[in-house]
Amino acid sequence: MLKISELNVAYDSIRVLWDVSLEIEEGKIVALLGPNGAGKSTLLKSVMGLVPLISGSIEFEGKIVNKLHPSRITEMGISYVPEGRGIFPYMTVRENLELGAMSKRSRKLMQENLRTCFELFPILREREKQLAGTLSGGEMQMLAIARGLMAAPRLLMVDEASLGLAPIVVIKLFGVLREINARGVTILLVEQNVLQALDVAHKAYVLESGKILLEGDTVSLRGHEHIKKAYLGL
Amino acid sequence: MIVLLCIVPLFVTSYILRVIFITLVFITFTVSYNIVGGYLGYVNLGHGAFFALGAYTFVILVTKLRMPIPPSILMGAVVATAFAGLVSYPLFRLRGAYFSIASWGLIILLNQLAVNLDWLTGGVWGVQLPIPSAEASVPAYYGAISIMLLAIAVSYSIYKAKFGLALFGIREDERVAANFGVNPFKYKCLSMMVSAFFAGLIGAVYIFNIGVISPSTVLSIDVSLAPVVMVLVGGVGTLSGPVLGAAILTIVQEILWTKTEYFHMLTYGVILVLVGLFMPGGLVRSRKLRRILRWKEV
Amino acid sequence: MLPIYHIDIMINGILMGAIYALIAVGLNLIYGVSRILNLAHGDLLMLGGVVTYLAYNFLGQTPLIALIVIIPLFLLIGGLINISVIKPLMKFGPERSAATSVIVTLGLSFIIVDLVLFGSAQAGISTFGVSYMLPSLRILDIYLSTVRLLSLLSILLITIILRLFITRTFLGKKIRALSQNREAALALGVDESRVSAITFGLGSALAAIAGVFIIMITATQATIGMTLTFKALIIIILGGMGSFFGAVIGGLLLGLAESYTMLYLGGEWIPVIGVIILFIVLMIRPRGLFGRES
What we know:
Chain A is α/β, with parallel strands linked by helices.
């Protein structure tokens, strides 16, 4: 569904991604792992069209999406939940969700999608009229993901969902992600919480210093030496 | 160069002497502005207030209190410096464009005070100094030379010293600089005071020579915002930039502006827009120019 | 019961305050979306006043007509300024562009003011005034200026419409989103350049509208722009950056403060009171009354 080939990205003159290639099959959950500063967020941002590329190509459902404006990318069915929640603190939960439906296509489905979101995240229905800035960390994360769903995406990219959340909340969150995936949404998950990520994903890539170090299905990766040593502390 | 400047009065007409004098004044004015506007990176639109304050203090001391000239000039600088220290407190609570607009308030304030307190300042019509200009022009000229040299020397030593480094740090990223143990406010306040000192000093000398003061001569937009334009043209944050910019623009001004009454502000405006969009570093920083002239950046 | 002249002072103060609020809200909107303060904002107000003046004195059109023309005109002008001058700036990134924007918008201000100065000098005019009169209203024993009351009502209406636009329409929500969290808004696919251009037009139109009302109250000159931009700044800081409500309240407070200063100290001290208020707020409570960001 998503095919990234030989991607090279730099900020000013600092190279962040070196010939990165990865592929995501439709209907799967793929995890992108790696240490801080490896370039994981940059990768997501490049798919979204937020960061210019030096070279390489990004293909979504057979179409090249390199040079497109972020608004076009959302229209094509990719949704991005940025690191740090990125909610709008002085707007209500409902307004935040409404903003997720940026494209015309998703705006038509707004009521239906709102219902779906409230189904998946009942706590948001409770807090519908509250200002988003008053929510707890976990609730904000759920809002951010729900907002991503409002765009009726076929691919949902989530950046560091577990950051700063209590383990119980993380388990719940990932449970919802599994449900979303079961409803037909492909998910690309950037995560520092390797254990949880390997649990929920089908396939994983490891990005270190801007280069893909490992790739493979999560079952075999769990037993991989490097993973065990560097990320699982074993 | 300095020797040349010193012997010039013996050879030229009083008109040319005045032009050179004004150039020296604006160079000093601009160099002093550059410490806050260039090194620190805070566009201080109110810098002209220090200049005017120095000028007005001088006039008031000389005419009302009949103080002799040299201490009056010094007091002009002192008052300007104290004022700068005082207004640093509220002003530096702001940053960026907010700071700039607020600093413009200093000009508005001083302008209104000059007009309102007419028993002190002569109001809108101003005050005439009881010093014949022929007597004043030569000592003023030498005063200007020395002050300009002093200002450039101080500017240079700041540039090279840790103080300058701190200012550059604050300009580039204030939070990071604070983490390195730089107390931002202390440096901002200090740099503002140093820049005010020279502005006030040269403001007093300027009026000493011109002999007449009024709000429209020292607090007009032409004068108050001149250093901003000059630094921009010459090169922001560099050492020679302000000198170059001031020199070029003052001479251009003297030649062009005496020809037409209109379009002074327009030329400034166009320069600002063009330089801002295309050459934000100014002449000294422009790489193309440097390649042509094989200049080293200072 | 307050003496009669107090009511007059208060109405004047509230009216001026409402006008100031319009200017401040416009500036706030633009800043929220593009992180750029337009130093030429006050000059757009002045231009609005000039258009009204020309329409009234040379074309015999009432200020109301001028108002209707001005809104789309300045929406366009603001948008054009944004596209031609501001957008290239934003390429430098939000940090650098903030510094350069001061320079560029200042230059713009100079150009506008000088052109108007030149034009007015050619026409032999030094101040602009529109002495539009309507029969006074009489309530109890007080004669009230109908023009002023109508102006106040109009501004109230405009403010309500604006508020509805920002809170109810999708575009309004995009504007709020960009000002509350730029990164997230971009991630959602908000078209920053487009929203920025529209907001600039909106803010500029608000300034011009304020100009229409100001010119009916006092004689204005080509140079009032910078002073009014400064006053808008005072209001934004007093009311709190990023707050619509704060800009409105701040505007009203400043208007009233100026009105009472006029009464007790005289009109020449009005600019000074503004500066004093600014410095006091900065020293005591820099985030203002309803401030949202740092």
